[in-house]
Amino acid sequence: MPIDVPDSHPCSICENFAGRYPWHGEPAVVHEDEQLYIIMAPAPLGGMDGHVLVLPKRHVETILDLSADEAALLGQAVSRVARAVAAAFDPEAILVQQHNGLGAFQTVPHVHFHVIPKAADAPFPPLEEVPIVSSEERAVLAQRVREAWARAEWP
Question: Is the pLDDT of residue 8 over 80?
Fold first, then answer.
């Protein structure tokens, strides 16, 4: 049985790949290759900087639609991003989220993982609206994660 996902055509993530960006500006890319797209999220949900999104390049609506190879690649990328975020921002905790379907609060019909550095005292979800970080500031944050991504090693 298919899961109901948000009706958003064209897909805002796929629009990024085509060079058409949302109102909050061009994404700050941490890593991009033929299969992965890793960017800074527009707003930090964990009470501190460093919220990153990990996405497949192929348009896939939910985790249920991933191939085994895509799922393995995304799992490795999420783990590596978490290591990079930990090194770059020294959070007290890291929250990894992934939503599938309207009932699970999915807002974009393209599977993606949130890697959220978390301040221990920050409420989650945030109790108030979180301001959007400027494109320029997201680019600086992406550079910090990119540098840590290059050093991220497996134990």
Answer: no
Question: Residue 68 burial (CB < 10 Å; 0-12/13-18/19+)?
Answer: exposed
Residues facing residue 36 across a β-bridge: 56
Three-state DSSP state, 4: coil
Main-chain phi, psi angles of 32, to 5 degrees? -145, 135
Number of compact structural domains in the chain: 1
CATH number (domain holding residue 55): 3.30.428.10
Top-confidence residue, 11 or 47 = 47
Burial group, residue 154, by CB count within 10 angstroms (0-12, 13-18, 19+): exposed
Indicate if the pLDDT at residue 154 is higher than 90: no
